[in-house]
Amino acid sequence: MRIGILTGGGDCPGLNAVIRSVVRTAANHYGSEVIGFRDGWRGLLEDRTTPLDIGAVDGLLTRGGTTLGSARVAPGLLRDGLDRMRAVLADHDVDVLVPIGGEGTLTAAHMLSEAGVPVVGVPKTIDNDIDCTDLTFGFDTAVSIATEMIDRLHTTAESHQRVLLVEVMGRHAGWIALHAGLAAGAHLTLVPEEPFDVEEVCRLVTARFERGDSHVIGVVAEGATPKPGTMALRDGGVDEYGHRRFTGVAQQLGFELERRTGKEVRTTVLGHVQRGGTPTSFDRVLATRFGLHATIAAHEGRYGQMVALRGTDIELVPLGDAVARLKTVTPSRLAERRAFTG
Ligand code: F6P
């Protein structure tokens, strides 16, 4: 058998661990070959490939990023390029394609699968917003990095009796903010799933200083939004997927807080540091298991599926179910946060 593999969307710690796992499982269990397409769907559209044998994946387990390269490709280009992608796969004798990616990549994988191309999807994203899987690899690493950074901000904030706002990634889901906020003992965590009232945030800040607390740490998800009428947020328009662009909510909230409470506020935007570097051991294991089970599914002809973590097991779920909606923070998880607010 010949497996094609590509990594699409934003990079994520653990992508290389999946590539290594697919190549090793294919070669060692089945005597099969793997070919990589460079820079996500773009490499498939432009016929840019790289051979992947055991030697090529040596040392990849611990390395961040993706050795295949990645890119975001507009959905329209993919729809128009369907026949072209099918032809390139046929030219390379690819029996099954294993795309590794987030919402955009898996939606494209589903489209290909519906068009009759044999596909087994692997979910990845630091945002943890893919439905039908308990977790995605990359999330644990991002939360660990954000937690360490927030731990460090506590000491500088208390030395100056300041409010420190930390903006974390997560797109339209608040998972990174929620988990890093809990892990690092934040006093306030703002997520997209629950629009915030800036006056309430001001009251929390004032109350903490009035009762003698030394500082305030607020974790702000990049997708957090104010309740209508409580604070104007710059409008960044929408991206090629029709998603709202983020425009630095933490910094804008910081200015408002300083103006309304008179306290000193500083803002830290963690940005791409959350996606960089080596994956945690948890993510290495999850990525390795995803690669193993995707390769088994490919050899068993279980196409149109995505590997998923359900409890402690890796299972297969229909790609169509996985991309039907984004997995956002549930009301019960939001409720847990309340005891640690203030
Ligand atoms: O989806 C992963 C992610 O890091 C999001 O958290 C973030 O909004 C986005 O990608 C950033 O994308 P880019 O790397 O294209 O700026």
TrEMBL record:
GO biological process: canonical glycolysis; fructose 1,6-bisphosphate metabolic process; fructose 6-phosphate metabolic process
Protein's UniProt keywords contain Transport: no
Protein species of origin: Blastococcus saxobsidens
Pathway the protein acts in: Carbohydrate degradation; glycolysis; D-glyceraldehyde 3-phosphate and glycerone phosphate from D-glucose: step 3/4
Top-level taxonomy: Bacteria, Bacillati, Actinomycetota, Actinomycetes, Geodermatophilales
Keyword NADP: no
Catalytic reaction list: beta-D-fructose 6-phosphate + ATP = beta-D-fructose 1,6-bisphosphate + ADP + H(+)
GO cellular component terms attached to this protein's record: 6-phosphofructokinase complex
Homology family: Belongs to the phosphofructokinase type A (PFKA) family. Mixed-substrate PFK group III subfamily.
Residue sites binding ATP per the record: 10, 72-73, 102-105
Subcellular location: Cytoplasm
Site, as annotated: Important for substrate specificity: 104
Domain Phosphofructokinase span(s) in chain numbering: 2-295
NCBIfam families documented for this protein: PFK_mixed (TIGR02483), PRK03202.1 (NF002872)
A family per Pfam: PFK
Residues binding Mg(2+): 103
Entry's Gene Ontology molecular function annotations: 6-phosphofructokinase activity; AMP binding; ATP binding; diphosphate-fructose-6-phosphate 1-phosphotransferase activity; fructose-6-phosphate binding; identical protein binding; metal ion binding; monosaccharide binding
Protein name according to UniProt: ATP-dependent 6-phosphofructokinase
Keywords attached to this entry: ATP-binding, Cytoplasm, Glycolysis, Kinase, Magnesium, Metal-binding, Nucleotide-binding, Transferase
